[in-house]
Write a structure and sequence with these properties.
The structure holds 2 protein chains of 2 kinds.
Chain A: H1 2-25, H2 27-47, E1 55-61, H3 66-77, E2 81-86, H4 90-99, E3 104-108, H5 112-118, E4 121-128, H6 132-160, E5 170-177, H7 184-215, H8 217-222, H9 228-257, H10 266-290, H11 294-311, H12 323-330, H13 333-347, H14 351-380
Parallel strand pairs in A: 1-2, 1-3
Antiparallel strand pairs in A: 3-4
Chain B: H1 2-18, H2 20-40, E1 48-54, H3 59-70, E2 74-79, H4 83-92, E3 97-101, H5 105-111, E4 114-121, H6 125-153, E5 166-173, H7 180-211, H8 213-219, H9 224-253, H10 262-286, H11 290-307, H12 319-325, H13 329-343, H14 347-376
Parallel strand pairs in B: 1-2, 1-3
Antiparallel strand pairs in B: 3-4
Classes of the chains: A alpha/beta, B alpha/beta.
């Protein structure tokens, strides 16, 4: 019995050695595997800004008096609008937006101060709707800044008329939990780490198996005493190591370079990541049993990546999605892991809060690996 | 010469059409993506699940919560006893926003010193941004209404007088309802055209080389230039077809308006295609096998997608990032596509991008032809 186990381990070791040599020989792919995640981190870290503020704004102030300047100042001070362009009239503002030189515009008609005094002043804010992303922020910002400004004017007017000035009756303070400054990095990094991990786990596994089929070398391996299950495990273990290295690099880059706070328990994170890697490997194996060529594998992994980007909550919120689409998202392990990563890294919560996702991930990993093992055997016969 | 090109075209088209599955995926994938964007993705989040801890339960506190619910941005999913419970609900992910109202709210509103706490889950960017903005705005508005009512009761404001001295209107050009799709479709057309042309071209050349059939082609009377042309032509057809399908689905199914000149758009996208084809040829000359081609093409796609302004606004990027973004043709075509499709402007507004794209196309084609020839020798 012990002799058989030793034999088994020896064969497993041989497969692993072969896999590792193969992996290390293809330097270019290896470098790409390690470099692409780094590049993505840098791209997202430096180039992606999801809080749209400082909209370049064209201003047509046709009054140029105290009140009109105060109005423009109120918009600029908020930080949402930058007065980058002063133009003649409304047509010029629209032209600047048409040309793409401004994303927002402010039009103040003549005799603004007098109109404010009479209480019937009007101002127009124009936004570029072709960039809906920046404009959504600008829209509500513009409205509330203008309202607050008008309210201030009203208050001082009431005071001048001898009325008693009440402060606004309700003071609402808004607190953003976990991410008080609404910093994009804190939001994007955990999702990105999870995403990179899945792509890597699924792709390398699927590729390494399918290549063997395509080249016909799988037949050669199978005439050796190596059993199918040993072949799978031997292929998976080097992948697990590769993915773990990547995980450590990417996470430390996020935490130490980009300063994303890690609030939860690192060991919990590590163990759950291992669970996620296993489910990713299972999914990769499943893909390899469906795909016949490397090209098909690429197409399937590309499809998976696209669905993962859109449906798992990586960037786009899952809450407004229709139930059918949500169900499709539930088929991707990333959906559960993203919630776990955000929970541990950003919210700093523990298993008691995350157990449903952890359970789902564990079931997923078990089912995927089991299915893959069964289909793998069948395909070999 | 025409006969030779024709023969090559014939071969390429047969090869392309034979691989049904690939063809199906190439045309189907973007449409799937479009439907997901059309039906499942909202960046402007409404009905955020909200937990409420109303410790007063008086008319003032109910009116306050009601003003949040009426806006449509917040759905109350639970009434909880305390602030800790609300934070716990957000920790668990059951709620993404919370309202905490301390005891004795009605009395403090009358005294003018009421306080309320609004909590927003900051771990989800779109939800937290929308929730933050709307919750703050609604709270401000509610408070203003109360104050004005108070002033009116005190006789300090006459009822018929317009209340706030400045009336600000906000007008959103081109896309008055801020429909995400109107914004996404031009960008999607641009990205799909780029990814398809780059990866298709690179793959078709590298496959030939890997299979060793490149040598066979070169011993025939076909010249390198003709070979290139023959390789590119089917990809142009597929990519244009793809673009038209996306546009058609967008316009006829999702009713995204096409504001500008369709022919101008068609000609400019045709020009844009060549930048992708050139890039694809360049990629093929630096890759030895299909795997490397795929990886390099993916890299280009990825970087282009993040830096080109498809989702993430370019004006917020630091200068050096913007310079890198200028290396991708996508960066020039996205403003062109948005300009024509969404804004409905003509050449006189987008000529700078058009010229930049033209220069880019010429440069990349020259470079790729040179590299391709050298590669063959």
């Amino acid at each position: 019995m012990r002799g058989r186990l030793r034999e088994r381990l020896r064969r497993l070791g041989a497969v692993m050695r072969k896999e590792t040599i193969q992996r290390l020989r293809d330097r270019r792919t290896l470098i790409l595997i390690l470099a692409i995640p780094l590049l993505q981190m840098l791209l997202f870290g430096y180039a992606v800004d999801l809080t749209a503020d400082h909209l370049p704004t064209a201003i047509s102030d046709q009054s140029l008096d105290k009140e009109s300047r105060a109005f423009v100042d109120a918009l600029v001070i908020s930080g949402y609008f930058d007065a980058t362009l002063y133009v003649e009239d409304q047509a010029a503002v629209i032209r600047a937006i048409d040309e793409g030189n401004a994303l927002a515009g402010v039009v103040i008609p003549p005799h603004f101060a007098a109109a404010v005094e009479r209480g019937d002043a009007q101002a127009l804010i124009i936004l570029d709707g072709s960039d809906s992303f920046s404009v959504q922020a600008g829209y509500s910002a513009a409205l509330s800044i203008a309202q607050a400004h008008a309210l201030e004017l009203l208050a001082s007017k009431v005071q001048r008329l001898g009325g008693r000035l009440e402060s606004t009756p309700i003071e609402s303070s808004t607190r953003v939990l976990y991410n008080p400054n609404l910093d994009d990095l804190i939001f994007v990094m955990p999702g990105l780490i999870a995403m990179l991990l899945q792509v890597l786990a699924v792709n390398t596994t699927a590729q390494s198996v399918v290549r063997e089929y395509e080249l016909g070398t799988i037949e050669q391996i199978l005439v050796t005493p190596v059993r199918p299950i040993e072949l799978i495990v031997g292929k998976l273990i080097p992948n697990v190591f590769l993915v773990i290295v990547d995980q450590i690099v990417v996470t430390s880059l996020g935490v130490f370079w980009f300063g994303v706070p890690f609030r939860g328990n690192v060991w919990l994170f590590a163990w759950l990541s291992l669970l996620f890697i296993l489910s990713g490997l299972g999914l990769g194996l499943l893909i390899s049993t469906v795909a016949k060529t490397q090209k098909e594998t690429q197409q399937l992994t590309a499809l998976l990546m696209m669905l993962s980007q859109l449906l798992t909550g990586f960037i786009y919120p899952r809450q407004p999605m229709p139930p059918v689409v949500k169900a499709v998202g539930n088929l991707i392990p990333l959906t559960y892991y993203i919630r776990i990563v955000r929970g541990i890294v950003t919210k700093g919560i523990g298993v008691t809060f995350l157990w449903s996702d952890v359970l789902a991930l564990a079931v997923y990993a078990a089912v995927a690996l089991f299915l893959a093992a069964v289909t793998f055997r069948k395909r070999l016969d | 010469m025409l006969r030779r090109i024709w023969a090559l075209l014939h071969k390429e088209f047969i090869q392309t059409l034979r691989d049904r599955r690939t063809l199906l995926i190439q045309i189907g994938l973007p449409i799937v993506q479009l439907f997901i964007f059309g039906y499942a993705i909202r960046t402007n989040v409404e009905h955020v699940p909200t937990a409420v801890a109303d410790q007063s339960l008086d008319p003032a506190s109910r009116a306050y919560v009601q003003s949040m619910v009426v806006s449509g941005y917040f759905d109350v999913i639970a009434y909880l006893p305390s602030q800790e419970e609300v934070i716990r609900a957000i920790d668990e992910g059951r709620a993404q926003a919370g309202i905490v109202i301390p005891p004795g709210f009605q009395a403090s509103v009358t005294r003018g010193e009421a306080q309320a706490l609004l909590l927003v889950d900051g771990s989800d960017v779109f939800t937290s941004q929308t929730a933050y903005r709307s919750i703050t705005a609604i709270a401000g508005e509610h408070s203003t209404d109360l104050m004005i009512a108070q002033l009116q009761r005190a006789g300090q404001l006459r009822g018929e007088q317009r209340i706030l001295p400045i009336d600000t209107r906000v007008r959103i050009l081109y896309n008055p309802n801020l429909d995400d799709l109107w914004f996404l479709i031009p960008g999607m057309v641009a990205t799909i055209l780029q990814t398809q042309t780059v990866s298709l071209t690179a793959a078709s050349v590298v496959r030939e080389r890997e299979a060793g059939t490149m040598e066979q082609l070169l011993v025939t009377p076909i010249r390198p230039g003709e070979l290139m042309l023959g390789k590119i032509a089917p990809n142009i057809v597929i990519s244009m077809l793809n673009m038209l399908t996306i546009l058609a689905v967008g316009i006829f199914w999702f009713e995204v308006p096409f504001q500008g000149d369709f022919w101008l758009f068609l000609w400019l996208s045709f020009m844009y295609l060549f930048s992708g084809l050139g890039l694809g040829l360049l990629v093929s000359t630096v890759s030895q096998n299909q795997k490397q081609t795929q990886q390099t093409a993916m890299l280009i796609m990825l970087v282009g997608l993040v830096l080109g302004g498809f989702m993430f606004p370019r004006y917020l990027q630091p200068t050096w990032v913007r310079i890198i973004g200028n290396l991708f043709p996508l960066t020039y075509f996205i403003p062109i596509a948005r300009g024509i499709v969404t804004k409905g402007v003509g050449l006189s507004y987008i000529w700078e991008q058009v010229i930049a794209l033209l220069v880019y196309v010429v440069l990349v084609m020259l470079l790729s032809i040179r590299a391709f020839r050298q590669n063959l020798d």
